[in-house]
Design a protein that fits this description.
This protein is α/β, with parallel strands linked by helices. The chain is built from 17 helices and 13 strands. A hairpin with a 5-residue loop joins β4 and β5.
């Protein structure tokens, strides 16, 4: 008989055959069949232990086994390959179920060996991998990319980016996403930033971020003075868009929407710039109007509006414009929060344009108050009825921009910006005032040294605070909710809702439940 590890199996020194009739199988031999001798005609002398009726193994065999084990260990330590007969050094007594005294290592009980024999197969043989059920596409797990927004799984959970599309009738394991290949992409080229999100729909109203990208490009730098996009600004934007194009090319995207906002709307050479983007990156961007931008901002933040809320003023402080939407929710709430917008406006001012007009490096209290006054004059022309507040939870502000996320990061005293700790946080009116006063007391170097601001935003953050202060004076609120989300999330939410992926998800869950 061949040994599973290789080589011939020696005869002798097997389990005791005392009291066994011919033709009857030994339970001990069944438990040892992976690596023990099956010779039933063994002639070794046996010794009876102190317990009545308990069969112990031969003393001579036990001593020889221990010597062989020591020789094997010594050979293994020195790197020599010594061939020794394979024999288990530990045996369980036939009736007591305990290890024979004197063994150096304890062995599992015979009952456990029988219990796990079917799972491990014969000793020495490699385990066969289980075959996946019919309809499964085995895909490797990919690492979650990280960026300013944190790990990709941080928004909605674990990244499960599998691109093999499955048929509706395929069998799926519990918890597996029903459409592993349905990825959506949203790109927002703003006056200050270029941002990209690639996501996968999960539970109704939610999605899992697969990949993300964000870079400050300052496309609108010098736009207010010249009315044109500068060559340096366009070069920075095109470089960032090349990165986005590479990310989109490497994935199977079901649907994408790529937008440009205020800088391209205002610039006289905005259309020529987009033609250059197509030629050099292959990305076709659309310039959206201000009303669409306001609605997308609301769609991106819809999950942050609680059921008890009756009125919300949502604002998005951008680089070249600031969108404000007044939302009134009655007893019947629509699935899309943007359908509850009653009034909206887009102010032709943002952090880049305001800081260029008033100066963003050295901001004194008088300069800051001058910026606030300019924005207040624009808001005075916004015809919007006064919001009636019945209870404390009926009304609040929602801010979605780098300004409010920076204030939240400074308030939390984060050693490094962390989106998971900022998105959705509540700030009281006093806390917002305290953070604005702290930033106003810092010089440019102090703002640049803060990890939640950095040198790229140090000359813009106080201009954003001035816009925020004008909004707070127009709509006083005891609290404000911070949203690290915006147009990209709104684009993704609208595309997924239009395609009905969440509705199909609910239907398929119901079919699986039946």
């Amino acid at each position: 008989m061949e040994d599973p590890e290789g080589g011939s199996r020696p005869q002798g020194n097997g389990a005791s055959a005392v009291g066994r009739r011919d033709g009857k199988k030994s339970r001990r031999r069944k438990g040892k069949r992976g690596g023990q001798s099956r010779n039933a005609n063994q002639s070794a002398q046996h010794v009876i232990s102190g317990d009545t009726g308990e069969a112990a193994r031969p003393i001579e065999a036990g001593n020889a086994a221990r010597k062989r084990k020591r020789r094997r260990r010594g050979a293994g330590a020195s790197g020599e390959a010594v061939q020794q007969p394979q024999r288990a050094s530990n045996e369980i007594s036939a009736t007591a179920g305990r290890t024979v005294p004197g063994d150096s290592e304890s062995a599992p009980s015979r009952r456990n060996r029988r219990k796990h024999r079917g799972k491990r197969g014969l000793q020495g043989r490699p385990l066969a991998h289980e075959k996946p059920p019919v309809g499964h596409a085995v895909q490797p797990q990919q690492p979650v990319p990280a960026g300013r927004n944190g790990p990709a799984e941080s928004r909605t959970g674990q990244n499960d980016n599998r691109t093999a599309r499955q048929s509706d009738g395929g069998q799926r394991s519990p918890g597996e996403h029903p459409w592993p290949g349905e990825l959506y992409a949203a790109l927002d080229l703003g006056t200050n930033n270029c941002r990209l999100l690639i996501a996968q729909p999960t539970r109704p109203g939610q999605f899992r971020v697969v990949d993300a990208f964000s870079r400050i490009v300052r496309l609108g730098e010098g736009l207010a003075a010249s009315g044109r996009l500068s060559d340096d600004a366009m070069d920075r934007a095109v470089d960032a868009l090349r990165v986005c194009a590479s990310k989109l090319k490497n994935r199977e995207i079901r649907r994408m929407r790529l937008i440009a906002t205020e800088a391209c709307r205002q610039a006289s050479n905005g259309a020529q710039f987009l033609d250059r983007v197509v030629a050099e990156t292959g990305l076709e961007l659309e310039i959206i109007d201000r009303e669409t931008e306001a609605r997308l901002a609301v769609s991106g933040c819809s999950s942050l509006v609680g059921r008890e809320t009756r009125s919300v003023v949502l604002f998005d402080i951008g680089g070249g414009s600031s969108e404000i939407a007044v939302i009134r929710i009655g007893d019947n709430r629509f699935n899309r929060l943007a359908n509850h917008i009653t009034h909206w406006t887009s102010l032709p001012v943002g952090v880049v344009t305001l800081s260029e007009r008033h100066g963003g490096r050295d901001v004194t209290p008088d300069v800051f108050e001058g910026m606030v006054g300019e924005v207040e004059g624009m808001l005075d022309r916004f015809d919007c009825p006064v919001i009636d507040v019945g209870q404390a939870d009926d009304f609040h502000l929602i801010g979605t921009s780098g300004t409010v996320t920076t204030l939240a990061g400074v308030h939390l005293d984060l050693p490094r910006y962390d989106r998971r700790k900022v998105d959705g946080i509540w700030l009281s009116d006093d806390e917002v005032s305290a953070m604005q006063a702290k930033l106003l007391s810092w010089d440019f170097a102090s703002r640049a040294a803060n990890p939640c601001i950095g040198p790229d935003r140090a000359d813009l953050v106080l201009a954003g605070c001035a816009i925020l202060e004008a909004i707070r004076r127009r709509w006083p609120s005891p609290r404000m909710r911070v949203a690290d989300r915006g147009l990209r999330e709104g684009l993704l939410t609208d595309m997924m809702a239009d395609d009905g992926v969440w509705r199909r998800h609910r239907n398929r869950r119901g079919q699986r439940g039946k």
